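Objective 1.3, modelling of assemblies. Example input:
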Amino acid sequence: MKKANFLFILLALAAMNSMAQTKKTVSAEQAKMNAFISGLMAKMTVDEKIGQLNLVTGGEATTGSTVSTDVEAKIAKGSVGGIFSMTTPEKIRKTQEVAMKSRLKIPLIFGQDVIHGYKTTFPIPLALAASWDLPMIQNSARIAATEASADGINWTFSPMVDISRDARWGRISEGSGEDTFLGSEIAKVMVKGYQGDDLKKINTIMACVKHFALYGAAESGRDYNTTDMSLDRMYNDYLPPYKAALDAGAGSIMVSFNDINGVPATANKWLLTDLLRKQWGFDGFVVSDYTGVSELIEHGLGDLQTVSAKSLNAGNDMDMVSEGFLTTLKKSLQEGKVTLAQINNSCRLILEAKYKLGLFEDPYRHCNDERAKNEILTPANLKAAREAATQSFVLLKNDNKTLPLKKSGTIALVGPLANTRANMPGTWSVNADLVNTPSLLEGLQNVAGNKVKIVHALGANLTADATLQTHSTMFGRDIPRDNRPEEEIIEEAVKIAKNADVVVAALGESSEMSGESSSRTDIGIPETQKKLLAALLKTGKPVVLVLFTGRPLAIKWESENVPAILNVWFGGIQSANAIGDVLFGDVNPSGKLPVTFPQNVGQVPIYYSHKNTGRPLAEGKWFTKFRSNYLDVSNDPLYPFGYGLSYTTFGYSDIKLSSNTLTKGKSITATVTVTNNGAVEGKEVVQLYTRDLVGSSTRPVKELKGFQKISLKAGESKEVSFTISENDLKFYNSDLKYIAEPGDFKLFIGANSHDVKESAFTLK
Ligand code: BGC
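Predicted structure (tokens):
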């Protein structure tokens, strides 16, 4: 064994010992399940057992060039354990009926990427995270589960909890951003929302945490790329959200595509067995990602038989689409390359999931046409989606009180994203209705009332390059394109802008410019749109930039020149109405960035909880020779983590600490008074950070440890208190022991990771 690997395992084992291993006692319900499954497995042939490990696609949404074939025949033979990407009670019932005619009548499990809502599409996950509203996020998952289960689905490939600090990575849109604490809190409530307190209830579905692990740290932000990471960063920053989701009871976990320190996750025994099973005690099932098993061939690990055996041996239970398990595991068993015990173990875990979902009692439990008719896209669900979207928008700038807009006069609405319905729901919304979702133009008209005249022009194409636009509008997410010369298209918009009272420019990314396989090296607003913006500003009219994006964008020029910027991400199928609600001031924006916005792409990865280095740059400085900085740009972010404005302003008092000494086993309280100093009611996300000043290993300059979203009427003050105990100060040290080290700490409370009040205490 290589020395590095040996060290790695030793450290992992040490971490294992430091985590309390809970001894499992078997409940009566579990004993019943075990007996049932043992009885069933006693009747199963090896082929049937391997069949359970095979997950095929129903073909409604595919994310690779391989698609499943002869599905019905395979089901009839008992060669399929589950199907994903198939919807409606009718189709699912028909397919389940085939399974019910197979020799042992083992029900299929039906999966789907229900990512941010089902048909009632909520804001993309990064946007939901920007709400910092945990009950609301949980409710979005609850509604998604109700709708998906009403449409035949038992299992969702969500939540996606990959921490990402790289805005180039397109899938940063699918997660909760850069922060471990916020990401973990969201991971928990998403699982609770999907699974409820009982998976046998008719409206709950099983969660599948993804992508395990470290997928968000792909080198250069290029999707599917290699990840190479220290154990310090892994344990302290990237792994906790997966663990949080599993501790919240997630029934399954999906393996990521990436290579981790030399071993792709899909074949990584340390990851899937030592960490996941032995250290964390996970007892649900593991599924590969789409063709993750056969991709091990390209990774350079061998032929299909070899990689399939490696993947099973590593701890992967289910093979999504590759059919490597189905076609080679029996041979590997005969050749002694895998054991029957391993096949049995994986088969059992998958059968257990079906049992927990109640599928053995009623394989058609989610096939109810009445539910499909009555429980999807209900007015209540649409209302929840609209409210969620309003909570997710982040007001980045609002000079001269440009916003809110008046409900009178003429508004020129321009930009390639103003009049498209298909672009509104956001990436990974395979069930969204792209035809009947209101466009921004329609949403503004809905909210504005009859005293406002809204005039519209395209103003610019999404990108000047037609091919890039095609790549950025796949899956039917069309955006109108005008083939006239750029200047002519801009001129038309400038003309209507000149006759308007205010200009709303709907610019940024298309929904498919982020998401899977949508990495970018230029994270700005496309050049042709920027030219439009510059021309609009020249008119002298107030300009509001409604910024669509699935990632932090480098918008330094825009932030210096445009008076008002509302970042709306992609807000789901109600986003147009929600943008109207916020632009016209019916709702006061309260979102806060769950991810740092850089000044330029060269600063990426940039995140607030970085280490100090031995040569930190002094606060407020741009460049000092021999300090850790850049020649051409300061170290500051454009907008820090946690940042977001409101139509009102909030004042923070100094911090009151109940004591400056925190004794192990006890707690202290930190309190601030927050005051709404403006004229309108608003919500504020009050954030608590700490800094461990001296450690046995280096510690971040700030770490989020708590937050509270409060609502304050104009002029109102509220006390906000946080309790801090030793547990909040724990981290994995260089021996991977999870400990809090006595010593001095700073404590910060404020409106974002930068603007904070400061205090200090000592852990004794
Ligand atoms: C994605 C997963 C998704 C799966 C199934 C893959 O390409 O990485 O996030 O769940 O496809 O659709």
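The first helix runs from residue 3 to 18.
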